[in-house]
Amino acid sequence: MKWSTLLWTYFLMALKMVIDLTRSGRFIRGKGVESLQGEDMNGRRPQNFKPALKRPFGNAVFFNFIFICLLTAFFIDARKVLAEEPAGGVRTAAEMTLTLEDVWKMTLLAGDDIRIAGEGVAQAQASVDKALSTFLPRITAETGITKYSDRKVSGSLVTQPDDSARFDLKITQPLYTGGTEWSARRLARMRLEKSGATLGYARQSAMLRAARAFFSVLKSQKDMEIKRAALKRAEERRKVATARFKVGEVTRSAVLRAEAETANGEAELIRAESAIRDAKSFLKRTLNVTEDLNVVEPEAFTAANASEEALIKTAYENRLDYKGSVLDQKLAGEGITYAKGNFLPSVRLEGAYDWKKQNPTTAFLVEDSVNASVVLSYPLFEGGLRKAELSEARSKLRESELRRHSLMRDIEVEVRQAYNSIESARAVIDAYKKQLSFAEEDYKMVFEQFKFGIATTVDVIDADSTLISAQRSLMNSSYDLQLAILELNYSTGVLSPGIQAPKRSQ
């Protein structure tokens, strides 16, 4: 529903109220028009007069007032809905709690690197059109007017007029340029393919950065929960220490130590809240949004059940940056072909139409003429330019080969590191689960002993520190495992290939 529709509806309903109120004050009875007092135009009351209480003025006002109030409430509510709903019906970050899939979709829609890479694709497409133009004829038109200083004659013949005008139309069609036109077209198409690979790789990289920012927010939220629970335990210890101090079981130093631990817990909680704000700010920057947002814990990812060698092979097949390096090598090879074409002659077809007008007409004026010619061109000496271009093209080919081999080794290292990170995270998670179980049980026992004076303040604080460390270690390792799986998927080029960006609203 649009604003204009709401406004017109509101206006028409208000107009209806005015009409109903007006009609409620008069009624039509028979041939005459009678007022509420029952008098006609001559001041007489008819015999069949019935008071207008069948449709009382007060009831009409009441029901129309209720109707207008309901319509106004609907209008205000619709205004709020429309104010919060962006164009195209896409929900903003302030309206929803984001899942990892939502974050990825928003990244694909508004990521700066993705949009920059998209412009690269547009430029590559324009290069293809430019390469096609070399096959088409060029048409050039020129016109001009010349004014001479004076007229010159030789006997009875005019050799220089007072002024002259001309119009030239020239058509040039390349027939052969040493194969450079075909090579340029192949280069343009390969650059377009390369820009597409670059765009895909930019999307994968942006999605991985967004996932890191997403899990950073989750870590910060979980860390705040741990520190909030730690503060609650510190407050419980303070209460116990205060109660024992009142009955003389402990000295005041135990109470002061408990107060200090509580204050430290409050400070840690403040730091955790600040860390959440920082993590959310970075995520909002990644998504290019300004509204506040929340994130939802994703489902656990499953790593690919394959060997390292199989994963490396998959990476060579799917990594878009590696495909781009292969295309770079092909581009360099085609660049050599283009450079060699400059050593060959070129042939072009030219046609021209010339029209001239002079005042007065000279003796040898040809007013219009049409000509056609075939031109063979071969550069004999250009200062060593062609040789330098060929050497440069060969060097670029060697460079592209070195870059591709270097990238292959980098990809292999990335896959092995991600694979080892998963194995390591799985192993330490099992150890941290045991540590957390023991730490929880230990804290319960020590705290109960502290209540009855068996354990000291130092003992219970040490048990609490061990519990906090175990909780944080397990939390970090759990999220690190999920990130390691995403890193492995990214390293093999299969980071959620099914995720598509929503269409941009017009």
Task: Give your account of this protein's structure.
The chain contains 10 helices and 10 strands. With 506 residues, the protein is an alpha+beta fold. The chain has 3 domains: 82 residues, no CATH class; 306 residues, Outer membrane efflux proteins (OEP), CATH 1.20.1600; 77 residues, Outer membrane efflux proteins (OEP), CATH 2.20.200. A 4-stranded antiparallel beta sheet has the order 4-7-9-10, with no helix packed on it. Strands 1-2 form a two-stranded antiparallel sheet. It has a two-stranded parallel ribbon with strand order 3-8. A hairpin with an 8-residue loop joins β9 and β10. The protein is elongated and about 140 Å long.
Short descriptors:
506 residues, alpha+beta, Outer membrane efflux proteins (OEP), 3 domains, 4-stranded antiparallel sheet, two-stranded antiparallel ribbon, 10 helices, 10 strands, 63% helix, elongated, disordered C terminus
CATH domain class of the largest domain: Mainly Alpha
Q: What value does the average pLDDT take?
A: 82
Task: Decide which structural class fits the backbone.
Answer: alpha+beta
CATH superfamily of the largest domain: Outer membrane efflux proteins (OEP)
How many separate domains make up the residues?
3
Q: State the helicity in percent bands.
A: 55-70%
Count the DSSP helices: 10
CATH-level-2 architecture of the largest domain? Up-down Bundle
So what's the overall shape? elongated
> Taking strands numbered 1, 2, ... along the chain, how are they ordered across the largest sheet?
4-7-9-10
CA-CA gap between termini: 17 Å
- For the CA atoms, what is the radius of gyration? 43 Å
Catalogue the unreliable spans: 25-39, 49-57, 78-95, 501-506
Please report the total strand number as a whole number: 10
Q: What is the succession of H and E elements?
A: HEEHEHHEEEEHHEHHEEHH
CATH topology type of the largest domain = Outer membrane efflux proteins (OEP)
